[in-house]
Write a structure and sequence with these properties.
By secondary structure, this protein is of the alpha/beta class. The chain has 3 domains: 144 residues, P-loop containing nucleotide triphosphate hydrolases (Rossmann fold, 3-Layer(aba) Sandwich); 70 residues, no CATH class; 50 residues, no CATH class. The chain is 40% helix and 21% strand. It is built from 12 helices and 10 strands. The strands form 2 sheets. It has a 6-stranded mixed sheet, sandwiched between helices. A 4-stranded antiparallel sheet has the order 2-1-4-5, covered by helices on one side. 41% of the residues are buried. The model has no long low-confidence stretch (mean pLDDT 85). It binds adenosine-5'-triphosphate (ATP). The site of adenosine-5'-triphosphate has 11 residues, from strand 2 and helix 1.
Length: 281
């Protein structure tokens, strides 16, 4: 049984269909990527899974239970953790206190009666490699550290499924690599991960499965190798220009497109040249 099962989800905002009959699964102990060009519907679908957005149609199942109408809180209690693209830590608290608060919230009223050392807080801080920052205020740490703090806070509820929204945003290459290793480590320990991410090196490097959205629809599902080789995916990433013969690869998609296609793009590379090169390989 899949840990998470999204079936036939549609979301309409007035006349806009942001997500159109999308289905996907996340398997236990695996890392699943949700990718697609800007405006493809990734965030909207993610919000449906986490409970921030009610779908117009379709169902979401988690651990076999239908959670389509469940509150965010209920989902968290069932073992769904999440991080946000925008960092959400309490700035005036230390790194350690931030993780402690997340533990306290999880424990509810009971926490007020036995506030003391919580071994798990230190375990989580060590797990994400933040021991040396534990006593620093959250608003004084660099972005890379804040991302890891967010992860530790989300892990404080001991989630079966962790939903990550653009976790590499603001990280440099070395930090992204380290973050990828940490995700693999978490998956090996049994925490499933579903992430929306634009950094294709990270996605291709760590995901077991990838779902590709375009115009709200899932156009491809498969392993990183299958996704790279998929013609529909290549077209989705190449279909940005009015005239692909003369338009240079837009900077915003160059890294993403070339990583998917496995071919490098120079400043003067056109989308057609990329497509031909991808075909040749
Ligand atoms: P990006 O990669 O740029 O974050 P995305 O794949 O996450 O994009 P969404 O943010 O889900 O895409 O948007 C999908 C479509 O739905 C877009 O056309 C967007 O303008 C539209 N949309 C999203 N949220 C709303 C809303 N609250 N009201 C109206 N339209 C919306």
């Amino acid at each position: 049984m899949a840990l998470l099962e999204v079936s036939g989800v549609t979301v309409r905002f007035g006349g806009i269909t942001a997500v159109n009959d999308a289905s996907l699964v996340a398997e236990p102990g695996s890392i699943t990527g949700l990718i697609g060009p800007n405006g493809a519907g990734k965030t909207t679908l993610f919000n449906v899974i986490t409970g921030l957005q009610a779908p117009t149609a379709g169902r979401v199942r988690f651990k076999g239970a239908d959670i389509t109408g469940a509150t965010v809180d209920k989902r968290a209690k069932m073992g769904m953790g999440r991080t946000f693209q925008r960092l959400e830590a309490f700035g005036s608290l230390t790194v350690r206190e931030n993780v402690q608060v997340a533990r306290d919230i999880r424990s509810g009223a009971r926490a007020w009666f036995r506030r003391g050392a919580d071994k798990r807080v230190d375990e989580l801080i060590d797990l994400v490699g933040l021991r040396k920052y534990a006593g620093q205020r959250a608003d004084s740490v660099p972005t890379g550290v804040a991302r890891l703090l967010e992860l530790a806070r989300a892990l404080a509820i001991d989630p079966a499924l962790m939903l990550l929204d653009e976790p590499s945003s603001g990280l440099d290459e070395a930090e992204t690599d380290a973050f990828g290793s940490l995700l693999r480590d978490l998956a090996a320990r049994g925490t499933s991960i579903l992430m929306v991410e634009h950094d294709m090196d990270l996605v291709m490097g760590v995901c077991d499965y990838i779902h590709v959205l375009e115009f709200g629809q899932v156009i491809a599902t498969g392993t990183p190798a299958e996704i790279r080789a998929d013609r529909k995916v290549q077209a989705a990433y190449l279909g940005f220009a009015d005239d692909p013969d003369v338009a240079p690869v837009p900077p915003a998609i160059a890294a993403e497109a070339t990583a998917i296609l496995g071919v490098p793009a120079a400043a003067e590379t056109t989308l057609s040249m990329l497509a031909v090169e991808a075909e040749r390989r």
